[in-house]
């Protein structure tokens, strides 16, 4: 039987690039989707509002794990072969879109109505109003919670382990099965996630406090 | 898309699905009650405990909030038995959920306590109310109102993330789905139905929480 040594540690650490890759993919895709969701949720078009509301309810009201299962097991059934990488990527992007969309909707709605009306009075069209007046202001409010949400995205990628995608958690399981030293193995796994997430949490907290201080002045 | 959906096998297993649903609800409620106990103790330690205790609680909160629930679950399920403590998947799942919720709820409760303006507490004391009366009549209800939305949505998040405990084959709803899947091979149908059950649970609980808010906490803030 193998014991937990440096090569085992390295195996888990190297899997971190898949965790990071998956996180980046989910975040970039989820940011694009989230912007769409936020714009649809705040639009004056009833249909866009209804569709985006349903999307958010489904993805916030069901477990991420089941969304992953549905895509991983469902896509082949529909005649579309997906590997765990693609399935995990799609599930995480859709899930992140729903959550970031809701966070950003709140930020857009936090901009005083008067700003919108003023832009309208200046004769700006919808796209210009959004792009030049509302979104730049909403962006400043949105930054701290968005950085904070990145932590949730990174933690969410661990679920890809369950469909057999070898990121940090799955690498830990593999090493654990070979060494039977779960205490060491899962402590190392937890510490790798902690090293990825904690700086982001601290940054989000600091940005939040700076913003609160700026508002209090 | 020419897929022939067959839901018969899924619906034929409704007693199993019902049992799994019940276990998911039961796990989430039990974990929430116990986790709130942990959180209240930690919130006290963080706001008025001695320094070493405060550091300990801070380390606990940061560690739990910055690692995935799945890893916490594996830690409790695999690592503790290696130390000689043998227990079931169900017990490990419950403990992981309690520990996880405890960390999130501590911060929520602390924020609730800190949301009460100091002046109101001082005013109560100046009116010769006892400390416990100040807590009961001045602090408790507005604090409860302030944290209620965050706490209830935390409950729903916990219930949804409890699907993860199926990874150690605890007997929750998702575990039932995984078992059914391996028996009937109707994976797509099963996961659609089970996702639907979770969605119904999430909507039902958030409706219930809103109703409770309207009935019990919907009074104007006195600020």
UniProtKB/TrEMBL annotation, chain A:
It comes from the Bacteria. It is found in: Cell inner membrane; Cell membrane. The chain crosses the membrane at residues 20-39, 51-73, 85-104, 141-163, 183-204. It holds the Pfam family BPD_transp_1. This is Candidate ABC type amino acid transport system, permease component. Residues 16-204 form the ABC transmembrane type-1 domain. Its main location: membrane. It comes from Ramlibacter tataouinensis (strain ATCC BAA-407 / DSM 14655 / LMG 21543 / TTB310). It is a multi-pass membrane protein. GO terms for cellular component: ATP-binding cassette (ABC) transporter complex. GO terms for biological process: amino acid transport. The keyword Translocase does not apply. Keywords: Cell membrane, Membrane, Transmembrane, Transmembrane helix, Transport. GO terms for molecular function: transmembrane transporter activity. Belongs to the binding-protein-dependent transport system permease family. HisMQ subfamily. Gene3D superfamilies: MetI-like (1.10.3720.10). The keyword Acyltransferase does not apply.
Automatic annotation (TrEMBL), chain B:
It is found in: Cell inner membrane; Cell membrane. InterPro entries: AA_ABC_transptr_permease_3TM, ArtM/GltK/GlnP/TcyL/YhdX-like, MetI-like, MetI-like_sf. GO terms for biological process: amino acid transport. Signal peptide: none annotated. One of its GO terms (molecular function) is transmembrane transporter activity. It comes from the Bacteria. Its main location: membrane. This is Candidate ABC type amino acid transport system, permease component. Pfam families: BPD_transp_1. It comes from Ramlibacter tataouinensis (strain ATCC BAA-407 / DSM 14655 / LMG 21543 / TTB310). Belongs to the binding-protein-dependent transport system permease family. HisMQ subfamily. It is a multi-pass membrane protein.
């Amino acid at each position: 039987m193998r014991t937990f040594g440096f090569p085992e540690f390295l195996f888990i650490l190297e899997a971190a690039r898949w965790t990071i890759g998956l996180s980046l993919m989910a975040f970039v895709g989820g940011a694009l989707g989230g912007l769409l969701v936020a714009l649809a949720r705040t639009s004056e078009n009833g249909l866009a509002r209804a569709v985006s509301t349903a999307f958010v309810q489904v993805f916030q009201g069901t477990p991420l794990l089941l969304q992953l299962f549905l895509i991983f097991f469902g896509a082949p059934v529909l005649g579309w072969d997906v590997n765990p990488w693609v399935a995990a990527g799609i599930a995480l992007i859709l899930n992140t879109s729903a959550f970031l969309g809701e966070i950003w909707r709140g930020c857009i709605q936090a901009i005083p109505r008067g700003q919108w009306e003023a832009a309208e009075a200046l004769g700006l069209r919808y796209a210009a109003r959004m792009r030049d007046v509302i979104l730049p202001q909403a962006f400043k409010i949105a930054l701290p919670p968005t950085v904070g949400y990145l932590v949730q995205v990174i933690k969410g990628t661990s679920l890809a382990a369950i469909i057999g995608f070898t990121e940090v958690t799955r690498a830990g399981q593999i090493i654990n099965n070979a060494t039977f030293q779960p205490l060491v193995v899962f402590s190392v796994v937890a510490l790798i996630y902690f090293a990825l997430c904690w700086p982001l949490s601290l940054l989000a907290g600091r940005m939040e406090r700076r913003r609160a201080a700026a508002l209090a002045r | 898309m020419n897929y022939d959906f067959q839901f018969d096998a899924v619906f034929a297993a409704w007693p199993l699905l019902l049992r799994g649903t019940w276990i998911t609800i039961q796990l989430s409620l039990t974990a929430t009650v116990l986790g709130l106990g942990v959180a209240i103790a930690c919130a006290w330690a963080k706001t008025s405990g001695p320094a070493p205790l405060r550091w300990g609680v801070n380390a606990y909160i940061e560690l739990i909030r910055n690692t995935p629930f799945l890893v916490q679950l594996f830690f409790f399920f695999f690592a503790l038995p290696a130390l000689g403590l043998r227990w079931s998947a169900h017990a490990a799942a419950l403990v992981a959920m309690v520990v996880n919720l405890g960390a999130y709820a501590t911060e929520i409760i602390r924020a609730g306590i800190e949301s009460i303006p100091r002046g109101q507490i001082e005013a109560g004391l100046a009116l010769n109310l006892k400390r416990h009366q100040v807590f009961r009549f001045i602090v408790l209800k507005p604090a409860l109102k302030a944290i209620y939305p965050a706490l209830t949505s935390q409950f729903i998040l916990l219930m949804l993330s409890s699907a993860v405990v199926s990874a150690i084959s605890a007997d929750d709803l998702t575990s039932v789905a995984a078992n059914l899947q391996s028996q009937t091979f109707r994976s797509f149908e099963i996961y659609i139905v089970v996702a639907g059950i979770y969605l119904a649970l999430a909507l039902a609980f958030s409706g219930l929480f809103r109703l409770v808010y309207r009935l019990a906490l919907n009074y104007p803030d006195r600020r």
